[in-house]
Amino acid sequence: RDWSVTGVQTCALPIYSSLMENLKPKLDVESVRDTIMRYNLAGAVDCLQHGYTMKFVGSGLFRNVYRIVGTKLVVKVPIGIRGKRHSEGEMKAYRKIMGSKHKYTAIQLYMPEILAYNKKTGVILMPEYRKVAGCDRAKVDEIGTLARAAMGKYCDLHKNNVGKGKLGDYRVLDLGYFVGRVKPKPKRKVA
Question: Which of 76, 30, 35, 77 is closest to 52 using CA atoms?
């Protein structure tokens, strides 16, 4: 025992240490998803306030993307109201594509896994996918061809918008290519 440290100081150190451990967020997928949904995290600052360490990954016209340090998860954070609307459009297109039994099945294999979508904030949580290398250009072109065939419109998918999962599976990282291109089923006329 250090003679210069009082009993109160010695006693408080382990308590402080255990309190700090309890304040660290759990980094498993379910805990992160629950925190994003329960507390309506709307940006990197909100994530930081809940104890997550964020690393900036990149940005686009409508959002910033951050990796949650200590996980293999990314958070896509909309920029302003236009960004939130863009996220809504992406999720609408995603659900339509993934729910398709025929029209969009060729592209379903390449859709990313969406772990959470907070409607209130527009935040999307998904696994982190590795960027593809130049040698993957043929596969990226193939995915682009499938997307164009399914969408029936221009699609400029490129290597910066396609990633690889843990098993080397290819995934479209930016669902913005499908916003406004996925058409709803025609309404049936009621006789």
Answer: 35
DSSP state string for 71-87: TTEEEEEE-HHHHHHHH
**Cα–Cα dist 122/126, whole Å:** 13
Percent of the chain with pLDDT over 90: 47
CA distance linking residue 139 with residue 132, whole number of Å: 10
> Of 29-43, 81-95, 143-157, which gets the smallest average pLDDT?
143-157
* Secondary structure of residue 68 in the 3-state scheme: strand
Chain-centre distance of CA 191, in angstroms?
A: 44
For the chain, the straight-line distance linking the first and the last C-alpha, in angstroms and rounded, comes to: 89
Residue the block writes with tokens 């109201």:
81
Separation in Å, CA 178 to CA 43, 146, 166: 24, 12, 24
Question: Which positions ≥6 away from 112 have C-beta within 8 Å?
Answer: 126, 127, 129, 163, 171, 172, 173, 175
